[in-house]
Please model this.
Amino acid sequence: MSTTRQHPPGDLGREPEDVGVDPHPDASAGAASCEPAERQWLTLSLRGVSGIVPTARDFARQALYEWGWLPASSADGRAAAEDVLLVVSELVTNACLHADGPEEMRIACTAKVLRVEVADAGAGQPAPRTPHRAGRPGGHGMFIVQRLCLDWGVLRVPGRSGKTVWAELAAPA
Model:
């Protein structure tokens, strides 16, 4: 798994014109609007929010409903949606524990890939603990992300502090 690639396999890297996209898509977009031509980043500011992790999960859950992932019609679809919510929880929790809290969460999808990004002001480099010890408390977040995702990594902008940790999950079949 890569932790430094600028443009991951799902090719959902943000473009300059994506900055400032309205955080709520047009309600007329309807379910299953994850086609590449219609891709829209949904953005949630997390600065000063209490209950950050549940807020981020609720935001992601709403996006999954808007994109037609939920309600899921199959066990695989339900599992894919739960994986997304777990990855959101782990990325946001990691930013809370190791980077003085997340500043923003972004989520977008295409027909094949859903991408979650969590931006924070931290300088650290997230990585799964090695060796992973399943029986010990704590330290499982990035291991979980690594296991559930197609790919994940860290995006840094030269000359700016902070980072964006991103993860991509496969859309349900």
Remarks:
- Confidence is low (pLDDT under 50) at residues 1-32.
- The chain has three helices and five strands.
- The helical segments are 52-66, 75-98, 141-148.
